[in-house]
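If your schedule permits, I should be very grateful for your opinion on a structural question. Please examine both parts with care and let me know of anything in them that strikes you as inconsistent. The record follows directly beneath this note:
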Amino acid sequence: MTILRIGLLVAAAALAYGQERAAVETWVASHQRQIMGEFNDLLRIPNVGTDHANIRRNAEFIRGLLERHGMQAELLETAGNPLVYAEKNVPGAARTVLYYIHYDGQPVDLSRWKTDPFRPVMRDGARDIANWNALEKFPDDWRIYARSASDDKAPIVAFCAAMDALQGKFAGNVHVVIDGEEEMGSPSLTAAIARYRDKLKASLLLILDGPVHPNGRPTLAFGARGIVTLDLTVYGPKMALHSGHYGNWIPNPAMRLAQLLASMKDEQGRTTIEGFYAGVPALTAEERRVLRSVPDDEPALLKLFGVAKPDAVGESLQEALQFPSLNVRGMRSGYVDEPRTIIPTEATAAIDMRLVKETPSARMVERVRAHIEKQGYHVTEGEPDDATRLKYPKLARLKAGEVMEAYRTEPESAAGIEVTRALTRMWGAEPVRIRTMGGTVPIAPFIRELGVPAVAVPIVNFDNNQHSDNENLRVGNLWSGIATLAAVLGM
């Protein structure tokens, strides 16, 4: 989209957005107690993916919620947790928009929460709000604390409220699928998409997940990195050995692992694995403009994180997200807290690689394997036997785990322009447009199986502690999120 075209779009939208937004906000203002009551009821149902009894309670509750808001809803059984599916069809509609949300949440460590994560608490700063369920109004800066308050039950409630706020004024068919295994990597989703293809096929897929930009403006994300996890283990002696008797003679696997990992990156943070960035095309001038339009305050972020200088993979944070990354998320070997002076038997690094659309997981794993072999290692699939240990001086195991491919719908595509126009019309200004967000969502199977473009429409506050203790939602993000979803529902 050219700068001139964006300017014309914003000018035209400014004429129309006032009435539409005012109508939605008036409806929300008169229904806050009802909306918050439904939100409270949903948050009170534990939703850790492995708790199958409560997961099904969530699914049944959401099915009923969607029905109460005018949709035909059902559970779609899978090999794991059920999907919740619902549709609202418009006679003669030319197309269908499918919305993806998830209802499962991350596990909780009760010792790290200030309150029960499944007993929602409303706070104004540090002050708990007593009897908040009886209130009619909820100020924007209050926050509700509970597991999945932001990730990802808020979008479910906001979606239902937006349906009501529009009072049936939809331009096309509205379908929604709500996943019960997203926080587990959605292992049952690919097979379920193939099984329920006729229900799920659509012209456009909108993902209701993730936070808005830290500046709080309405946000769109046109792609997400994928992920593949790896466990890399370097082997030493069969048993732990006294470092005095055998140091300088028996190789130390922890030292070798450190050297092997160090060989994978240069001083600027760029990966040195051959072909790691191959296939990622140079950014066009328009793509660079989209990246520069994201209002990141990088000096403030570095100050917040306590880091003096970032890696130099890209010229900015947004540009860095356009490339695959290699991250060591943890290491384990021997003893740290106990004074045992030994040469350990093995050392393991837990690695995750974030993928982009042009770097599929299988190819990237092979490039890592080739790099390890190039450093002189024999790489095994499983635990080495005695014969293997005696044959190869340098021995490692590489084991792949979670896999989810990346996706991207270009911001300048027809779908990207349409969704941008919808939010611009509602808010009177262009939303923040993120070409590729850093987190991973299980959308690649939809694109692969259904051939549908996908765009994420996040609504929650960026400082929501998702995946961590004391997860929360800023109330104002729920109210503005309803308006944002009304904008795309009314496209």
DSSP finds 16 helices and 21 strands in the chain. The chain has a mean pLDDT of 94. The two ends are 19 Å apart (CA to CA).
